[in-house]
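During the no-cost extension, the postdoctoral fellow (Dr. R.K.) reprocessed legacy sequence entries with the updated structure-token encoder. One reprocessed record is reproduced below for audit purposes.
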Amino acid sequence: MHDYRAPRWMLGHGAVGGHVQTIWPALFARRFEGPPPQFRRERWDTPDGDFVDVDFLDAAADAPWLVLFHGLEGSSASHYAQAFAHWARRHGWAFAVPHFRGCSGELNRAPRAYHSGDFEEVGWILERLRTRSAQPLVVVGVSLGGNALLRWAEEAEASAARIARCVCAVSSPIDLAAGGHAIGRGFNRQVYTRMFLATMRPKALRKLAQHPGLFDREKMLAARDLYAFDNVFTAPLHGFRDTEDYWLRASAKPHLHRIRIPALVLNARNDPFSPAASLPAAGEVGRRVTLWQPAHGGHVGFPAGRLRGHVLTLPEAVMIWVGAQG
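Re-encoded structure tokens follow.
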């Protein structure tokens, strides 16, 4: 995947290719072979009186475990989650998709949601999953979930090895300021920002009805980009001063040298959400971190095959890397 190249029918010059390789795979590409994955759901009560829902594909009692943290407004129904589920089913691995709060189809209870640096939540979930596995977990995080996963590995440092064999971040905006500003401009603002706000704003307003006075309703209704949304909702609800404080403190990029377990950080250089100039260089990361930065792939795209295409190459490549870690 480090030298991935999009199929000829999905190539495009510059930003155009990044958009095509992002949008088409998410909407139209094949994400599994055979019947769709059938998940079994568990609801876990959290220490603060809330809940998270975790979807499972079960396997043999001694099977290795693959865990996937989804991206912003994602779920186990996301195209990448189903592609990794297909890989797990095909190879006999147990598979789990923990849903960030509010992303499983039901509004969570607490006056909080989730955010890009939610490493404490990630750690709590991984601790519980580790009790079910005979060996440390293989953990993949996609987009927002990948940044949060890397932040967990950074904070855990050497103790992460007790929980995870390795971590993999796919298309993760590890420089949140660069990504946040990029998604707020031009085509990105008209398409991706509108798409995210179409679900995030109604959830936030339902949260306000659940907890009156939580934030300013009129400011929320006026929010037209993620910067404004985070200023009204995400930052203050999760202990940050404002959007800039949140984006600075939650970004994984400045702390990649602290990771003490094998970590793969995969970012396409034409990803509309993460400008190529903001991606880390080899000298900015620790020795356990592998950087894959192919020219193509878009945001969680990496399509392959003939017209319509599929997204099965991504999990195959990631899990080949995992297998090489011993």
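The beta strands are 40-45, 51-57, 65-69, 94-98, 137-142, 164-170, 263-266, 289-292. The chain has two domains: 8-175+256-323, 177-250. The remaining legacy entries will be reprocessed before the final report is submitted.
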